[in-house]
Design a protein that fits this description.
402 residues; alpha+beta; Rossmann fold; Dna Ligase, domain 1; D-amino Acid Aminotransferase, Chain A, domain 1; 4 domains; nine-stranded antiparallel sheet; 31% helix
Length: 402
């Protein structure tokens, strides 16, 4: 005789098997970390600024709090096995208090200082012998004139702290353009850099685990417009193999010397010289990065999974590309509103395009998503990705680009 069938299925109390990773910041980087966390059996928590943040829409455990509030960050960290970030703006003093409390923070405040303050970054990289543009901290017109006499105009002026996607950066052609920035920066000064004549911009993405294991993805070319990354091509086309190795070695050395745990993006200029092409380091980011979004669809292990592996000190995954080319194009907002309706055309026209939307309000110039196309033909991949991104943004209609 068969046993009676229960009207209700047996249930067991929930148990937390895997670790809890807390990510400060509720932007698209945290949002794109959630699928990797699910696959690894890791519980992701997010400290969001607003309940409508990109990541808060898809991560159930997303308390709202200010990343500058030590009490809010401490309360958030109390429920996590390791704390990491989708931005670098948590004040150093807040992070140092957490470390003193015994919280595992990866990357730690000493490493993050090099992304929070560009002068700190330049000083350390220069001391390590890492190739960088010529630079100087300027506090007044005299400092500026002295540096300009050495390297010439124009100069690139940067606020040491804050700034991204072109914000906090001025290309000044003369002292008159620089003067208002110097006046606002009284006391802190500005980072002045030589305007580097470069052939193109590259990015080298690496990951370093807490135990020291490291891995590097292929070096990519990034295409910028108005200070915003518009396109990424992996690998960088026609890049000399020796220079690709050199770029990866530089990024891996920076990760090791600075004690980075997690993903590190090193933005570089490719330059020409009498001894052949070279690279200069422009910026650092210690988190998943826009230049690595192509890895979601184009690499064996994407940057979000790798970041989780690294901060949890798990063995790192294979970073190799899965196809000859991958082209990622950012979708920038135009204010048109309804993005979902555009998917009908994009997906019907090209079933191979991969679309990633961030759940963000469509504001002009804002990164609201990206598309990736992988394949064997670079020109074709580029055309397909650009059309899809432009159509979603409303830049082109269905008949254009056919």
């Amino acid at each position: 005789m068969s046993p009676p069938i229960s009207a209700e299925p047996a249930s067991e109390p929930p148990s937390q098997v895997g670790p809890v990773v807390g990510m400060v910041g509720g932007g698209q980087l945290a949002r794109m970390t959630q699928p990797a966390a699910i696959a690894l059996g890791v519980r992701l928590r997010v400290l969001a600024e607003d309940a409508c943040d990109s990541a808060a829409q898809v991560v159930p455990d997303s308390p709202v709090g200010d990343h500058r509030d030590a009490a809010a960050v401490r309360a958030f960290a109390a429920g996590c096995d390791v704390l990491t970030f989708d931005h670098e703006h948590v004040p150093a003093e807040v992070l140092e208090k957490l470390v003193a409390d015994g919280v595992t923070v990866r990357p730690g405040p000493q490493a993050l200082a090099h992304t929070q303050d560009k002068v700190v970054m330049r000083r350390r990289l220069s001391a390590l012998g890492v190739p960088c543009p010529r630079w100087q901290v300027v506090h007044d017109a005299g400092d500026l004139a002295g540096f300009a006499s050495e390297v010439g105009w124009p100069l690139v002026l940067k606020t040491p702290r804050g700034g991204y996607d072109g914000k906090g950066v001025l290309v000044a052609t003369d002292a008159g353009e620089a003067e208002p920035w110097l006046a606002r920066a009284e006391g802190t000064g500005l980072l002045a850099e030589q305007l580097v004549p470069f052939d193109r911009e590259l990015a080298t993405l690496v990951a370093r685990a807490a135990g020291g294991q490291a891995a590097a993805w292929p070096v990519v070319e990034t295409v910028q417009a108005d200070g915003i990354c518009r396109e990424v091509v992996a690998p960088a086309p026609d890049l000399d193999p020796g220079l690709a190795v050199r770029a990866s070695e530089i990024a891996l050395r920076i990760a090791g010397e600075l004690g980075v745990v997690g993903v590190l993006a090193v933005e570089m200029f490719q330059t020409a010289g009498p001894r052949g092409p070279g690279v200069l380091v422009n910026e650092l980011a210690m988190r998943p990065h826009n230049s690595g979004h192509w890895t979601i669809d184009g690499a064996t292990t994407d940057q979000f999974e790798q970041h989780l592996r690294a901060v949890l000190d798990l063995p790192l995954g294979d970073p190799r590309a899965r196809s000859r080319w991958a082209v990622m194009v950012n979708v920038l907002g135009t204010g048109r509103g309804d993005l979902h309706r555009s998917l009908l055309h994009v997906m019907a026209r090209d079933p191979g395009v991969k679309v990633h939307l961030y759940g963000k309000a469509d504001r002009p110039g804002r990164k609201i998503g990206h598309v990736t196309v992988c394949g064997e033909d670079l020109a074709g991949c580029r055309d397909r990705a650009r059309h899809a991104a432009d159509f979603i943004a409303g830049v082109v209609s269905g008949m254009e680009g056919e």
